[in-house]
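Hey L., structure's done. Input below.
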Amino acid sequence: MRELVEVIAKELVDYPDQVVVTERETEKGLVIELKVADSDMGKVIGKQGRIANAIRSVVKAAASKTDKRVIVDILQ
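Output:
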């Protein structure tokens, strides 16, 4: 899942070398944290959060095969 988020985010931003994706396991499920450059934050979130929701939907669809709950957090 981490690689999927990383590939999507790197295609959206102007500074792909500053994209950092980390994964951690919690009691709620798998948490994927995405960090991008401050100037790229709007490109990853999109108007009214549409891009962020689309990323979460794609990851959720990919995670449905593994029967795990996956949460995507976008950090500043």
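The mean pLDDT is 94. The chain has one domain: 2-70.

-- N.
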